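>> received
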Amino acid sequence: MFDRIINLRNLTFPEGYLSIKGENAWNAWFKWGKTLSAEEADFLHKTSDIPTDYLEFLKIVADGAIIYYEQEFGQWGFELFSHKEFALKQGFWRENLVLPNNTRYLAFCELFGENTVLVFDTTDTKLCVLEANCYFPPTEWTRVADSLGEWLDQLIDNDGKKYWD
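>> returned
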Protein backbone atom coordinates (compact mmCIF):
# COMPACT_ATOMS: atom_id res chain seq x y z
CA MET A 1 0.00 0.00 0.00
CA PHE A 2 2.85 2.42 0.73
CA ASP A 3 5.46 1.38 -1.85
CA ARG A 4 5.54 4.70 -3.69
CA ILE A 5 5.78 6.89 -0.59
CA ILE A 6 8.52 4.59 0.76
CA ASN A 7 10.46 5.11 -2.49
CA LEU A 8 10.02 8.87 -2.11
CA ARG A 9 11.16 8.68 1.51
CA ASN A 10 14.22 6.70 0.50
CA LEU A 11 15.18 9.45 -1.98
CA THR A 12 14.87 12.23 0.61
CA PHE A 13 15.58 10.61 4.03
CA PRO A 14 16.09 11.90 6.72
CA GLU A 15 15.52 15.26 5.08
CA GLY A 16 16.18 16.51 1.61
CA TYR A 17 14.96 18.06 -1.59
CA LEU A 18 13.29 16.79 -4.70
CA SER A 19 13.32 18.93 -7.83
CA ILE A 20 9.84 19.19 -9.29
CA LYS A 21 10.06 19.75 -13.04
CA GLY A 22 7.54 21.38 -15.35
CA GLU A 23 6.16 24.79 -16.14
CA ASN A 24 6.38 25.93 -12.52
CA ALA A 25 9.54 24.10 -11.41
CA TRP A 26 10.35 24.17 -7.69
CA ASN A 27 12.26 22.32 -4.99
CA ALA A 28 10.12 20.32 -2.58
CA TRP A 29 11.58 19.74 0.89
CA PHE A 30 10.91 16.59 2.90
CA LYS A 31 11.62 15.61 6.50
CA TRP A 32 10.85 12.14 7.79
CA GLY A 33 10.53 10.88 11.35
CA LYS A 34 11.87 7.47 12.33
CA THR A 35 9.42 4.61 12.08
CA LEU A 36 7.59 3.14 15.06
CA SER A 37 8.76 -0.22 16.32
CA ALA A 38 6.37 -3.15 16.04
CA GLU A 39 5.98 -3.07 19.83
CA GLU A 40 5.09 0.64 19.83
CA ALA A 41 2.59 0.15 17.00
CA ASP A 42 1.00 -2.82 18.77
CA PHE A 43 0.70 -0.84 22.00
CA LEU A 44 -0.89 2.11 20.17
CA HIS A 45 -3.25 -0.24 18.34
CA LYS A 46 -4.53 -1.45 21.72
CA THR A 47 -4.58 1.91 23.54
CA SER A 48 -5.30 4.70 21.04
CA ASP A 49 -7.83 5.69 18.41
CA ILE A 50 -5.24 5.94 15.63
CA PRO A 51 -6.70 4.13 12.60
CA THR A 52 -4.95 0.91 11.53
CA ASP A 53 -3.93 2.31 8.11
CA TYR A 54 -2.27 5.30 9.74
CA LEU A 55 -0.53 3.09 12.31
CA GLU A 56 0.89 1.08 9.39
CA PHE A 57 2.15 4.34 7.86
CA LEU A 58 3.80 5.29 11.16
CA LYS A 59 5.35 1.83 11.44
CA ILE A 60 6.68 1.30 7.90
CA VAL A 61 7.04 4.81 6.42
CA ALA A 62 7.65 7.41 9.14
CA ASP A 63 6.42 8.47 12.56
CA GLY A 64 5.50 11.92 11.29
CA ALA A 65 6.69 13.69 8.16
CA ILE A 66 6.76 16.98 6.32
CA ILE A 67 6.28 16.38 2.61
CA TYR A 68 6.27 18.61 -0.46
CA TYR A 69 7.11 21.68 1.62
CA GLU A 70 7.86 24.83 -0.36
CA GLN A 71 10.55 26.56 1.73
CA GLU A 72 10.89 29.85 -0.13
CA PHE A 73 7.57 31.27 1.09
CA GLY A 74 6.34 28.42 3.31
CA GLN A 75 2.93 28.48 1.68
CA TRP A 76 2.73 24.90 0.55
CA GLY A 77 3.24 21.46 2.01
CA PHE A 78 1.82 18.82 4.29
CA GLU A 79 2.68 17.84 7.86
CA LEU A 80 1.63 14.30 8.70
CA PHE A 81 1.37 13.91 12.46
CA SER A 82 3.61 11.64 14.50
CA HIS A 83 1.83 9.35 16.95
CA LYS A 84 2.40 11.90 19.74
CA GLU A 85 1.17 14.82 17.61
CA PHE A 86 -1.85 12.76 16.55
CA ALA A 87 -2.99 12.54 20.18
CA LEU A 88 -2.22 16.19 20.94
CA LYS A 89 -3.81 17.70 17.81
CA GLN A 90 -7.24 16.06 18.09
CA GLY A 91 -8.48 18.48 20.76
CA PHE A 92 -7.13 21.51 18.91
CA TRP A 93 -8.83 20.55 15.65
CA ARG A 94 -12.08 19.47 17.34
CA GLU A 95 -12.25 22.96 18.86
CA ASN A 96 -11.15 24.75 15.67
CA LEU A 97 -13.66 22.84 13.53
CA VAL A 98 -16.37 23.15 16.21
CA LEU A 99 -16.90 19.39 16.51
CA PRO A 100 -18.25 17.44 19.48
CA ASN A 101 -15.87 15.40 21.64
CA ASN A 102 -17.24 12.13 20.28
CA THR A 103 -16.57 13.19 16.69
CA ARG A 104 -16.02 10.61 13.98
CA TYR A 105 -13.35 12.79 12.33
CA LEU A 106 -9.67 12.31 13.21
CA ALA A 107 -7.14 14.92 12.07
CA PHE A 108 -3.85 13.55 10.74
CA CYS A 109 -2.26 16.12 8.42
CA GLU A 110 -2.06 19.93 8.45
CA LEU A 111 -1.67 21.90 5.23
CA PHE A 112 0.91 24.67 5.34
CA GLY A 113 -0.36 28.09 4.32
CA GLU A 114 -4.02 27.19 4.89
CA ASN A 115 -6.41 26.89 7.79
CA THR A 116 -7.33 23.35 6.82
CA VAL A 117 -6.54 19.86 7.95
CA LEU A 118 -6.93 16.44 6.42
CA VAL A 119 -9.11 14.12 8.49
CA PHE A 120 -10.10 10.50 8.45
CA ASP A 121 -13.84 9.97 8.39
CA THR A 122 -14.29 6.91 10.59
CA THR A 123 -18.06 6.45 10.09
CA ASP A 124 -17.48 3.45 7.85
CA THR A 125 -15.13 0.49 8.22
CA LYS A 126 -13.14 1.83 5.23
CA LEU A 127 -11.58 5.18 6.06
CA CYS A 128 -11.82 8.04 3.62
CA VAL A 129 -9.79 11.25 3.64
CA LEU A 130 -11.54 14.64 3.76
CA GLU A 131 -10.19 18.20 3.76
CA ALA A 132 -11.79 19.98 6.70
CA ASN A 133 -11.94 23.65 7.58
CA CYS A 134 -13.84 25.75 10.08
CA TYR A 135 -15.72 27.74 7.45
CA PHE A 136 -17.90 24.84 6.33
CA PRO A 137 -19.84 22.10 8.12
CA PRO A 138 -18.63 18.50 7.70
CA THR A 139 -21.29 17.81 5.09
CA GLU A 140 -19.53 20.32 2.81
CA TRP A 141 -15.94 19.15 3.36
CA THR A 142 -14.11 17.97 0.25
CA ARG A 143 -13.56 14.24 -0.22
CA VAL A 144 -9.87 13.91 -1.09
CA ALA A 145 -9.41 10.14 -1.38
CA ASP A 146 -10.97 6.83 -0.43
CA SER A 147 -7.91 5.82 1.61
CA LEU A 148 -4.60 7.04 2.99
CA GLY A 149 -2.71 5.08 0.35
CA GLU A 150 -4.80 6.56 -2.47
CA TRP A 151 -4.20 10.10 -1.15
CA LEU A 152 -0.44 9.56 -0.98
CA ASP A 153 -0.32 8.03 -4.47
CA GLN A 154 -2.39 10.89 -5.93
CA LEU A 155 -0.15 13.42 -4.19
CA ILE A 156 2.92 11.80 -5.75
CA ASP A 157 1.24 11.66 -9.18
CA ASN A 158 0.54 15.40 -8.90
CA ASP A 159 4.01 16.43 -7.63
CA GLY A 160 2.65 17.49 -4.26
CA LYS A 161 -0.06 19.74 -5.66
CA LYS A 162 -3.43 19.91 -4.01
CA TYR A 163 -5.08 17.93 -6.79
CA TRP A 164 -8.57 17.97 -5.27
CA ASP A 165 -9.04 21.76 -5.62
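>> The chain has five helices and eight strands.
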